[in-house]
Specification:
The complex is a heterodimer of chains A (300) and B (712). Helix content of chain A is 36%, strand content 29%. Chain A is of the alpha/beta class and 300 residues long. Chain B has 712 residues and is an alpha+beta fold. Chain B contains 25 helices and 15 strands. In chain B, the strands form 4 sheets. A 4-stranded antiparallel β-sheet of chain B has the order 2-1-3-4. In chain B, strand 6 and strand 7 form a beta hairpin. Chain B starts with a helix and ends in a 6-residue tail after the last strand. The chains are: A alpha/beta (300), B alpha+beta (712). The interface between A and B is medium-sized, with 26 and 23 residues.
Chain lengths: 300, 712
């Protein structure tokens, strides 16, 4: 489990992180979402033990991560801005990782290199940006990390490779209970893969939710009644998150059991009744009250 | 213990990786040593024992750390090593990647440090081993007991080279730790290796300019060059002293520990900036401003010296100082902040702070806030005093200490006068106080003299001062007169104290009469023992009776004496003195000095013995004297003197040096056909101040080649 408590980091006069809290459950995939400059990479560099916060704590399984070799051994990190030792071929870089990480899985390395169809003998500097990213994924996943930290991992990858990458990640999560922290500036990309989402803006954690919990028991209902009293009667006893009218039709976002919502509406014989699916963006917008600029920016 | 071990731990995979990545540095370095040193040595190896073989000079310069390619490698290789090994700190991607690996910062630092040591020292060790294998007896031409290519000398070279390389490497690592990018790392690595000596040199320049009595010559050479092992090795062939070694090791330990601490404190997010620590940003920008203001202020000072009034009296210096501060402070800020936007509130605030510091520094030196100028030790605290420059006023070798018993330091040809008796110390302190009262004469013309007073106090501490004093001051100084005419001083340079008691021959001549075709003076030489003894007695009596004013007299030179000493006399000397004499004899076996017209005993001896004509110019032999004005280094109108009385007055009032070199007169003498020198060309150096010449305050006759056109 990764726990960040009250983390603050200043770069000169600029406060990059401000009393940030974050909790990542073991074996989960956590999506850290925010606009460019929100502080995602800074958070990740703290989690990987690269940076030291001005105040607050960054713990992995209860141990501080900074300068802690035994914990850092368990972390695999694919950084946004890739770096390979100068003039090294993919094979040489693999050998370096093998020397550094005792857990390096050579069989998996061979298998992944084969599956991703990369040239082992080619210098990494000759790889395209996307190929370099694949190489970084392979090297990192072959260290068999307990914690995989991915900073903007999708950039530069084509859909097929993306799928292949996620396949390996999901496999490790399910088989080895690997914990994943993945950052993105696009919430839609995170929707299908993440268990939890944290939205960060201007160095502050805006909202942090478990997606299952977030998605369950929240409903978008379109309904029209004969009169307003019937509508009031139907909504009585329901947790209405958001309500708006579009002509005679009302749009309701309700957090409650599906059966209870259906029964409450149908009992009042609505002229129109429809339950619609909610996207992750809509959930966040309604959760935040629908007016948060940061959320709008992320979803736009 | 665990904490200590964690600070010493390394990552062997990282070291191996570094060695795999950067092995070419070692190879190139070794090739440098091999091609520039070993191969040329191989080529002359069979004949290297023979005198004047180039290989001998190669060996000597290599093993004394004066061989340019080796010294260049000692500077460049460690700098490059540090730059490539710590380059990962200067790029966001690499710093992130390396620090996300399961390694502590101590492991990363130590592993890179050790990698560099291996890469730098392997070529050095290989070169050392090859030289050891090549070593064989190659004896010094000058001293056959010295083997120039001994294993001991090779070991000494290696030891020095290790210290030099290690020092440069550590300084370069420190530079890398505080730098944010590779360009700044490289710049600081070279600069910081010479930072201490350069700052010391600059401080000396300020002290020298403002502090009356500051003795730069005695301190610059020794201390500045010793501050870093690299410069010390270039400046001196001697092994590092124990004290110096201790200083170097302490300094290296401080640099290493500082680097480790700063590396742990380094904010990795600042990679890419010029400098990563706030304090280093301030310090480096201040240092750049300090160098810049020094350059401009001293340049302006030189230019200002040609003006009058404000500019001449330090005005130009301060004008340059302010201009330098403004220009170079902001240039420095641009460099350290990697931005041209430096004319902002923060920049001006820092400028104000620097301005205050700079002015405090310069003003404290200019106003002598420490009381440096007035400091004179109390008599009871003084163990001994040396007065340098006093004996050399005469500008001859008469007072050269090497000719005298207990002459002192070999190789130190500064004439000095050392006193320990209370009554003499009192005289020396009075002289020192008198020179302080005389103050700084900023516009000395003509002759001036540098006098240094070196105290050694009872507590062992030295105090050194040096003053430039005018001829006029010296002539009128009661304190100098007291010292010169004292028995202590006269005893010091009495002929009774000569190392070799009697010269083997004595020559005398008039330096104004020179046979140009044969390029030599017209000498008279005596080697008769009785004549030598009686002449030596006469010379000694004149020396003992000579007054301070006679000693300083600028005119009235009768002629010159040369005493030649024979090394056969060595048998009467102690072994130590014999050795000293052999060394000295190579260049200093002849003592030469003037005979004054007031040296009555010597002149009488000359005339009695019939040598007077050799020394004197007879005015009756002179046909004419042509006199030229020389104003501001240009020759003016000529005047010709033919009247016998005027010629006699001219000859009698010859002076040796003009008092103002920008405004004086000189003459050329034409001899009559019947004169004894009639078939010769003559070169005359005549100086005079005859009353008959109007215009310039000083009259001199400069050395000119004269051709008597009256003859063919």
């Amino acid at each position: 489990m990764i726990t960040i408590t009250n983390l603050t980091k200043r770069f000169e006069d600029f406060e990059a992180l401000s009393k940030l809290d974050m909790n990542i459950k073991k074996g989960s995939i956590y999506g850290l979402v925010g606009t460019n400059g929100a502080g995602k990479t800074t958070v990740i560099k703290h989690v990987t033990g690269v940076l030291r916060g001005d105040s607050g704590e960054v713990m992995i399984d209860g141990a501080p991560i900074y300068n802690n070799v035994s914990e850092k051994k368990r972390i695999g990190y694919v950084q946004d801005e890739l770096y390979f030792l100068g003039n090294y071929s993919f094979k040489e870089m693999g050998r370096f990782y093998k020397n550094i990480y005792k857990t390096f899985n050579e069989d998996r390395f061979k298998e992944m290199v084969n599956n991703f169809d990369l040239d082992l003998d080619l210098k990494l500097s000759r790889f395209s940006k996307g190929m370099q990213k694949q190489a970084a994924f392979i090297l990192t996943l072959c260290t068999m990390p307990d914690y995989l930290i991915l900073d903007e991992p999708i950039d530069g990858l084509d859909p097929i490779i993306r799928k292949l990458v996620w396949k390996y990640i999901v496999k490790d999560v399910s088989e080895r209970e690997m914990t994943v922290l993945v950052s993105s500036h696009n919430l839609r990309e995170m929707e299908d893969i993440c268990d939890s989402i944290g939205i960060i803006s201007k160095g502050r954690m805006i909202i942090e939710r478990d997606l299952d919990e977030l998605k369950s028991d929240i409903h978008k209902v379109q309904a029209a009644f004969k009169d307003e009293d019937m509508e009031k009667e139907a909504l009585k006893g329901l947790k209405v998150v958001h309500k708006e009218r579009r002509g005679s039709v009302g749009l309701y976002i309700i957090r409650d059991k599906r059966e209870k919502v259906e029964k409450a509406f149908k009992d009042k014989k609505p002229l129109v009744f429809d339950m619609l699916p909610l996207s992750l963006e809509e959930i966040f917008i309604y959760e935040m009250g629908g007016g948060e600029d940061e959320i709008e920016a992320i979803l736009s | 213990m665990k904490l200590k071990l964690s600070y010493l731990s390394v990552s062997s995979p990282l070291i191996l990786e570094n060695l795999k990545r950067f092995w070419s540095l070692s190879v190139l370095s070794f090739l440098g040593y091999f091609v520039s040193g070993i191969i040329p040595l191989f080529l002359t190896y069979d004949v290297v024992e023979h005198s004047y073989q180039p290989g001998r000079y190669l060996i000597t310069s290599m093993l004394s750390n004066n061989y340019f390619p080796y010294m260049a490698l000692s500077l460049i290789v460690p700098v490059i090593g540090a730059v490539i090994l710590y380059r990962f700190l200067h790029n966001t991607a690499s710093v992130t990647m390396i620090h996300s690996l399961p390694l502590t910062r101590a492991q990363i630092f130590n592993s890179n440090f050790i990698s560099g040591i291996v890469l730098i020292f392997i070529p050095l060790i290989l070169t050392f081993l090859i030289l050891l294998m090549m070593s064989k007896p190659v004896y010094d031409n000058m001293d056959l007991s010295v083997n120039l290519f001994s294993r001991a000398l090779i070991l000494a070279w290696f030891f020095k080279a290790v210290i030099i390389n290690l020092f440069v490497y550590l300084v370069s690592i420190f530079s890398g730790i505080i730098s944010g990018n590779t360009a700044m790392h490289m710049f600081l690595a070279f600069w910081f290796n010479f930072l201490l000596p350069s700052l010391y040199g600059i401080s000396i320049a300020y002290f020298n300019k403002f502090l009356l009595g500051f003795d730069s010559r005695s301190q610059l050479g020794d201390v500045a060059m010793s501050l870093v092992p690299y410069l010390k090795a270039i400046s001196s062939q001697e092994p590092y002293s124990l004290l110096l070694l201790t200083y170097y090791f302490v300094l290296m330990a401080v640099i290493l520990v500082s680097s480790v601490i700063l590396y742990h404190k380094r904010k990795l997010e600042r990679s890419g900036d010029s400098l990563v620590f706030k304090a280093s940003i301030v310090i480096i920008s201040y240092l750049i401003a300090f160098y810049g203001m020094t350059a401009t202020s001293f340049s302006f000072d030189v230019v200002g010296a040609g003006f009058q009034g404000f500019l001449k009296s330090n005005g130009a210096f301060y004008l340059g100082l302010f201009i330098g501060i403004f220009i170079f402070f902001f240039i420095g800020r641009m460099i350290v902040t990697k931005s041209t936007r430096v004319l902002n509130k923060s920049g001006f605030k820092q400028l104000l702070i620097y301005l205050v510091i700079a002015l405090l520094f310069v003003a404290s030196v200019d106003l002598d806030l420490t009381g440096f100028e007035k400091r004179v030790p109390q008599l009871k605290t003084i163990k001994q005093i040396e007065l340098l420059g006093f004996a050399s006023i005469e500008n001859s070798s008469r007072y050269d200490e090497i000719f005298f018993v207990e002459g002192g330091n070999l190789g130190n040809y500064n004439q000095k006068t050392l006193f320990t008796e209370a009554k003499d110390l009192e005289k020396l302190v009075a002289i020192h106080k008198s020179m302080i009262s005389e103050g700084r004469k900023s516009n000395l013309k003509g002759r001036d003299y540098r006098m240094s007073v070196y105290y050694e106090k009872n507590n062992g501490l030295p105090l050194k001062r040096a003053y430039t004093v005018s001829y006029e001051y010296l002539v009128n100084s009661k304190e100098f007169k007291d010292l010169y005419e004292s028995k202590s001083y006269k005893d010091l340079y009495s002929f009774k104290n000569l190392l070799v008691k009697m010269p083997s021959s004595i020559a005398f001549y008039n330096e104004y009469l020179m046979d140009v075709t044969e390029n030599q003076y017209s000498y008279s030489v005596i080697d008769n023992k009785d004549e030598i003894e009686t002449l030596m007695e006469a010379l000694e009596m004149d020396y003992q009776e000579r007054t301070w004013q006679q000693h300083l007299d600028n005119k009235g030179i009768y002629g010159f004496i040369e005493l030649s000493f024979d090394s056969n006399e060595l048998k009467n000397l102690s072994k130590e003195d014999q050795y000293s004499y052999v060394i000295r004899e190579k260049g200093f076996s002849v003592m030469s000095f003037p005979v004054r017209k007031t040296d009555a005993h010597t002149i009488k001896w000359m005339e009695d013995m019939g040598y007077g004509e050799t020394m004197a110019i007879d005015p009756l032999d002179i046909e004419k004297i042509t006199i030229y004005n020389r104003i501001d280094w240009e020759d003016g109108e000529a005047t010709t003197i033919t009247d016998k009385e005027e010629i006699k007055a001219f000859i009698d009032s010859i002076i040796r040096e003009p008092e103002d070199y920008s405004n004086y007169k000189y003459g050329i003498i034409t001899f009559k056909q019947s004169a004894p020198y009639s078939t010769k060309f003559y070169d005359y150096l005549l100086h005079s101040r005859p009353d008959i010449i109007d215009g310039a305050s000083t009259f001199t006759v400069d050395r000119e080649i004269f051709f008597d056109t009256g003859r063919s």
